[in-house]
Amino acid sequence: MFENLPFLRKKQEEDTPAFDPDDTSYLEPTAFQKRMPWIAVIAAYLLLIGSIGGVAAYLITSEDQILAEIREDRPKVSLEADKITVRNLNETAGAGDHGGSAAPPGHQEGDGHQQISANDQASGQTATDAAAPPGPDGLGELLQPHPDPGLIEESAVGPLPIIGADGRMPWRVYSRPYGVLETRPRIAIVLTDLGINSRRTEQAIQLPGPVTLAFAPYSRNVEDWIQKARDAGHEVLLTLPMEPRDFPRSDPGPFALMNSLDAEQNIRRLEWIMSRATGYVGLVGYQGSGFVANPRSVKPLMADLRSRGLLYLDGKQTAASIALRSADAVGVPAAQADLILDIELGRAAVLKQLKLAESLARANGSVIAIGRPYPVTLDRIRIWMRSLTESGFAVTPLSGIIAERTAS
């Protein structure tokens, strides 16, 4: 009610400043608001410097602990020489001396390449019939146990294969036994890229033992898969990722051998791949159409494989590959796949390639067929192998065919 008093209205008007519609000074930022962007930039910079300093301080003060953890995580092998033995055929079959220290008949001491004896061949037995379980065909126990202490060297990345002081080579020692007197045309089946898909890898291991299996070094459990495959009688390889012609559209992975790297860098990557497991006879190229056509890249690779006693299989990635020529020049046992089983997917297409393998084996004496663990490929191989003996062909481990080809 006091608002209506004249003297109060007059005083209120005097205390209220007059509004100027043209005055925009209230829209101008304050001094603090003007400095706000710079304050934010400085704060972010100090936070970044503090974070980097904190990480650096941790790395410096914890260097020993970090290095110990890295060494603990690298692949390891247990080299107990007194526990590594090779059982003979009689023991495997449940007869004879059970000492478990004799080598199989035909096993050449100092060489390691296990071969089925002439007596087995004369009685009509093949490598598939010569022994009892374990393994789908009974030859799991005839593979040399791994790792062999004399064929391993420790490195910063893990165990690496070497030629033994007695001249034994991993590609011979870890090979699967085969019939040296076999007169039938020979077919080597090699399945690559195993270890990534567990179900398909299990199915591949269940195939008859003469099928050669190649495992991806990127597989988390590659060492366990190789042990399981060898227990089932399979000879094994590691796949070697290399630069494809269409890189980077096709990516072979973080440890692939690349043309853009020098020889020393590629050898370091090769050593990482080889250190993932033991018990393999060699390497098979993965992608690599660009790498295997480059002499500057291929020659150091082959020289290193030769010094380690490993074989090499060219996966037929490109007609321009010089891998075999480079391998021959330095004495690496090597071969190129003669055909790809699943270049086209489909039951009829895979079966057609298997029949082509038979024709090539009949004409040339032997053939190497390579494929991937597609369901249709695994299914066709399984069915095809059931009637193979009656067809007059023998499935042979890869090392057997490479040994014959390099010896001729």
UniProtKB/TrEMBL annotation:
GO terms for biological process: carbohydrate metabolic process. The chain crosses the membrane at residues 38-60. The keyword Transmembrane applies. SUPFAM superfamilies: Glycoside hydrolase/deacetylase. Pfam families: Polysacc_deac_2. Residues 114-123 have a biased composition (Polar residues). Keywords: Membrane, Transmembrane, Transmembrane helix. CDD domains: CE4_DAC2. Residues 91-155 are annotated as: Disordered. InterPro entries: Divergent_DAC (IPR006837), Glyco_hydro/deAcase_b/a-brl (IPR011330). The keyword Protein biosynthesis does not apply. This is Divergent polysaccharide deacetylase family protein. It comes from Hwanghaeella grinnelliae.
